[in-house]
Amino acid sequence: MKVTDIEIPYEKDRSRRYRLFEILPGVISWSILILPFILSLFIPQLVIFMIITYILLWFVKSMGLLIRSFQGLKKLEDSKKLDWRAMTADLQNGTVAETTVAPEWHQENLARVGNIKPDDVYNAIIIAAYNETREILEPTIQSVLASDYDMKKVILVLAYEGRDGAKSEEAVLQLAHEYGSKFAHTVTAKHPLTENEVRGKGGNITFAARKLEEYLKSAKIDPINVIVTTLDSDNRPHPKYLAALTYLYVVCPDPLYASFQPVPIFTNNIWDVPAPMRVIATGNSFWNIVLSMRPHMIRNFSSHAQGMQALIETDYWSVRTIVEDGHQFWRTYFRFDGKHEVYPIYLPIYQDAVFSSSYIKTLKMQFVQLRRWAYGASDIAYVVDKGFFTKNKVPKGDLIMKIARLAEGHISWATAPLILAFAGYVPLLVNPKDFSSNQLPIIAGRIQTIAMFGILATLYMSLKTLPPKPEHYKRHRTIFMILQWVYLPFTTVIYNSMSALVSQTRLMFGKYLDKFDVTDKAVMTSDKKTII
Fold first, then answer.
1. 23, 230, 272, 469 - which has most CB atoms within 10 Å?
2. Hey, what's the torsion of the CAs at 369, 373, 378, 383, to 10 degrees?
3. Whole domain around residue 167: which residue ranges?
4. Could you tell me which of 236, 295, 256 has the C-alpha nearest to residue 68?
5. Is the pLDDT reported for residue 204 higher than 70?
6. Nearest-5° angle of CA 404, CA 424, CA 41?
7. How far, in Å, CA of 118 to CA of 188, rounded?
8. 277 CB contacts (<8 Å, ≥6 apart)?
9. Residue 288: inside a domain
């Protein structure tokens, strides 16, 4: 598919058919939530059977997710122990050094090295900023410098906004001056307010990537040898991330058709944020761990990496949507006629949980962040339109499976917590004198009670992934880290379900999110002062 064919149509250019598929996710979600009330009036026994079946299916599914969480956590720990830099040197030399301690698959990967050798590779790190202060940005740059990797093979790109009173410019320029010489090259890119662009991250990092392309041409560096990682201003890659990324880039079958997804873990400030935000952040971290164990489900999310040549051929990220990360998967998928794979990197990118200047503002910002993520439902119409109504060579069987997973994921996001929490009471509410309707809440409650044991396992894993407790917190803070899980039912319903329903309902009525609402990233100092 030509690069001009992979763009999201502007609002004024969206056909009735396109609008139909924008409306469809919300219609399905609301129908699923309303249907039990209607059916309870006429065939309550069917509703009871459906609700019990649904709860049992989710019980089985939750056990599977729990197992995946443990497997993924172990995989992360094992990956942290590998000497990725030594293994990458082996790929360059074509043989395993006597001093290299590596798993069996490392020997097999030597034969997979193609025309690109590790020493040819440059890593470009794009750090996107809007209103972030030096206190937020500097630790991110320092974390890159702390990588177990040759910094003379790393290009730093600081992408900052020049629109809407953005305030990061001074901090960015100071940091570029102080740290720029430590990298192979440093690019600063001030993104101007641009017509026909959504006010969002996509336009910012695309503008910066074009500046990077100019530098690569002047330095005579082949784009196929450059891997680009995009980081938010609070993202801190694991020290072995760059070496592992280089390793995978070199051994993957064709790097032009590949993206790479590390595991976002929201623990940078986990000790500082309010309890509801800790529960949500931990849940999001575990979900990302689970996804890493299901490669067929992985999509670009938050921090991700892709080859510069592939970015050039897809005209970088979309500047027409606020969910440019996940949408980049679909742009690449259609641009290369379905030849696109996302490879997991079993190393964390540590990120901030939502934290603002006040408790109330933090609660609000958390909802805004999840609503933005849930707006990925807008990709359903895009994928259907490009897959079935635009000329392409994408394998239709694969496309249908991907659309089904995409739609099911967003509909379950909106409906599953509400059904699991409240559906057992619907027949009783409509038919209070019916015996089966009275028994349903008891049956559902018992199943849910058994499922609650999964929270104990989640609690164990959450404590295992906690960073060290800051010195300015006393021991009782650890107790709160345990007691916080009482919030889980509330955060799941109020934040997860409602954020998805709001996003899908906005799509139904054409109330598009045309601005990237930047999440506050505050820093708590040792004297417990909050800096945004």
1. 230
2. 160
3. 72-271+296-353
4. 295
5. yes
6. 90
7. 26
8. 353, 354, 355, 362, 363, 366
9. no
Q: How far is CA 125 from CA 77, 154, 187, 215, 307, in A?
A: 24, 7, 10, 14, 12
| Residue 147 forms part of a structural domain | yes
* CA atoms of 479 and 493, how far apart (whole Å): 24
pLDDT in tens, 281-338: 999 999 999 999 998 889 999 999 999 999 999 999 999 999 999 999 999 999 999 9
If one counts the domains in the chain, the total is 1
CA pair distance 339, 394, nearest whole angstrom: 8
Tell me the pTM. 0.94
Over 70: is that where the pLDDT of 525 sits? no
CA separation for the pair 286, 238 (Å, rounded):
17
- Taking alpha carbons only, the member of 81, 75, 87 closest to residue 243 is 87
Band of the pLDDT at 523, cuts 50, 70, 90?
low
Q: For residue 240, tell me if it sits in a domain.
A: yes
pLDDT of 519 reads 80
Both structure tokens of 345: 């990197």
Residues 104-141 have pLDDT tens digits of 999 999 999 999 999 999 999 999 999 899 999 999 99
Does 23 map to a domain? no
Check the CA dihedral 208-324-255-285 and report its sign: positive
